[in-house]
Structure formats: C-alpha cells, structure tokens
Amino acid sequence: MAELNSSIILLLVVLISTHLLSSANEVYNIAEYGAKSDGRTDSTKPLLGAWQAACGSPGPSTVHVPAGSFLVRQVTFNGPCKSSKIVIRIDGTLVVASDLGRVGEWIVFDHVEGVSVYGGTIDGRGASLWTCKATGRRCPGGATSLTFRNSKRIMISGLTSMNSELYHVVINDCEGVTVQGVRIMAPGNSPNTDGIHVQMSSYVTITGAVIRTGDDCISIGPGTTNLWIEQVNCGPGHGISIGSLGKGYDEEGVQNVTVKTTVFTGTENGLRIKTWGRPSEGFVKGVVFEHAVMQNVRNPIIIDQNYCPDNKGCPDQNSGVKISQVRYNDIHGSSASQVAVNFDCSASNPCTGIGLQDIKLTYGNRPAESSCKHADGTTSGFVVPPSCI
C-alpha cells in the first residue's frame, strides 16, 4: 500500500512539474538574438528569430524589445503558432528602414491567434514620402505601419504609432480584436494616414485612443460587423468614417457599429458615412453614434452617397449602398460650416430609419443648419439645427 501511495505521489509530482514547465512564460529578448539599439543596424532578423522561437514555444511566451531604437525592414510574423499566448512587449522604438515605401506593408501579423502587443513606439518616418506627394512627382506607394490579418484574439495596448507613410493600423479579416490606450500621431497635412482601419472583421473594440493624423482617425470598411468604438479623441484628421463603401458591386455590408463618447477637435468631419455613387449590393445597418462633442468641426454629421473622386467611374450614377437604422444621440458642440447636419443620400436607395435625438450644434453664435436629400427618419428631444427629415 505504501508503495502504491508513493507511486501516485510521484505521478502527481511529474504531472504538476510538466504543467508548470508548459505554462511558464518564456522570454525571448531580441538583443540576445543580435539586435542593436542604435537605430542604424538592421534588427529585422533578430526580431524575426525571437518571434519564431516564441511561436514554436509550447507555452506562453514573450518577445521583448528592450529600450532603445531598433531599425526594422519589412517583416511578417506568420502563424499558426504552437504557443496560444504570445506577448510582444515593446519598451523601445521600432524604426522603419528608409527604403520601405515600395513594399506596401511594414509590420504584419498573419494567421496568428492569442497575440498581444504592449507598449512602445513604432515610427514610420513618413515625412519624405509626404513631401514627395506634395510636389506632384511620381512617388513610391508607401507602407502601412502595422497590419493584422486572418487572425483571432488580438490585443493592442498602449502602443504609439507615429508618422506612418500610409495607414497606421489595419485590422483585416480578423475576429476578436481589442485596441486600447493607443496614441496615433501624424501631421494634419499628411496624406492617406488613416489612424485605424477595420475591414472584413468582427467583434473589434477600440477604446481610449488619441488619434491625430491627416486622414480618417478611424475608417470602417466593407464586411465589418459588431464594432465598438468608445472614448476616442480625434483631431486633426477627417473624423470617424464608415466608408468609403460601394466601390465594388458585390461588396459586403457593415452592420452593428457603435461609436460613443468621442471628441472631435478641428476635424474635417465628425461622424461620417461615405459611399461611392455607383451600383452596389453593399449596405450599412444598425449604427449608433452617441455622446459626441464637436469642436469647430467642418461636417459634424454627414452622410455622403455621391462620392466620386475626380468624377471618374461613377458620374451621374446613384449609390446602390442601402443605409438604414442609423441613430444619432446626444451630439453637441460647434460646426465650422453653416450646415452641420448633411444627409446627401442616394436617389435610388434613400436612407431610412435615421434617428436624431438631443442634437445641439452651433455655427458661430447661432444655430447651425441642416440639409437632407432622400433621407427619412424621426426626431426626438431637442434637435438644433431643426431637422429636415
């Protein structure tokens, strides 16, 4: 009996030890793989080596970027991984290599699950590309700084993205993404530098973000469902935009989007829905915009269904994107233009189910105005400017 008890105890010790070993957090410091924190030495291979070790680990693992500046060229972190929980902890700065503009993407995570990025800074050094574009010369296409695609259970927390050549953060074909406490910085005149772009993704949450950039603070593309945006400060920039949508005929729709507790300062737009003026099977349905403060915003509330850049590919056509069940509640502040509420909907597919409640927008020292085309809905509470729906 004593021998049996001893065998059982030994077995338990082995099982517990195995569990502890498999659950231990392995840390892979990129400096130990040869990365140099001088901002000049190429640290791409050390970074990728640390990732491959973490990805192949049987238990939780961490890729650690220590303090300092690390030069990184285009890098893709591919999955799936053996480890189901990988942390990328950045205490320093990742700096893009100067010749990246022709690649299109800088840092990419593809087919990963359970990855979290914490802290640190990524610097896209986009100024030279923006200068080139301003001259009208033929320029490289530019690169998005951080992309997650085909991935699940992703966390981006406390990250600062600065001066991206193009989009700062792209979430494409993902499920279960949390973005919290990020700071996104680029000059107000930097072209195509959207802060966070979400498309073909579901159950994405963006909270506590400060975004100052030259394009949309947050842009929402086709196939986005169950998106929650809260406590975002935007400006300069082009606001929070659903769209542009409807460029393609068979495009997927956007559904169940909530945008609440936001502040827009000096932006081109506040809360915008934008669709191409051309046939499409796309739709926008079930959207809530609430508790927003506008501070000198040119277009605080706008639906534009006649988007047609340079009048190419869509002149004199109507948008096929169907917009319905969009609610605006508790939107107040100042407009930089006389028309603060502008619903320019499709003649062939009018906007339906638009709701306005407790809206107070001023232009100068007087109430702003509203303009509606092909829009139908209801109002309640106080609505200033007077509703035209």
Automatic annotation (TrEMBL):
Q: Which reaction does it catalyse?
A: [(1->4)-alpha-D-galacturonosyl](n) + H2O = alpha-D-galacturonate + [(1->4)-alpha-D-galacturonosyl](n-1)
Q: Where is the signal peptide?
A: 1-24
Which subcellular locations apply to this protein?
A: Secreted, Cell wall
Identify the domain of life: Eukaryota
Q: Which GO terms describe its biological process?
A: carbohydrate metabolic process; cell wall organization
Q: Enumerate the InterPro entries for this protein.
A: Glyco_hydro_28, PbH1, Pectin_lyas_fold, Pectin_lyase_fold/virulence
Q: A Pfam family name for this chain? A: Glyco_hydro_28
Q: Which top EC class applies here?
A: hydrolase
Could you list this entry's UniProt keywords, alphabetically sorted.
Cell wall, Cell wall biogenesis/degradation, Glycosidase, Hydrolase, Secreted, Signal
Q: What Gene Ontology molecular-function terms does this entry list?
A: galacturan 1,4-alpha-galacturonidase activity; polygalacturonase activity
Q: What is its EC number?
A: 3.2.1.67
Q: What is its main location?
A: secreted
Q: Which family does it belong to?
A: Belongs to the glycosyl hydrolase 28 family.
Its biological purpose: May function in depolymerizing pectin during pollen development, germination, and tube growth. Acts as an exo-polygalacturonase.
> What is the protein name for this chain?
Exopolygalacturonase
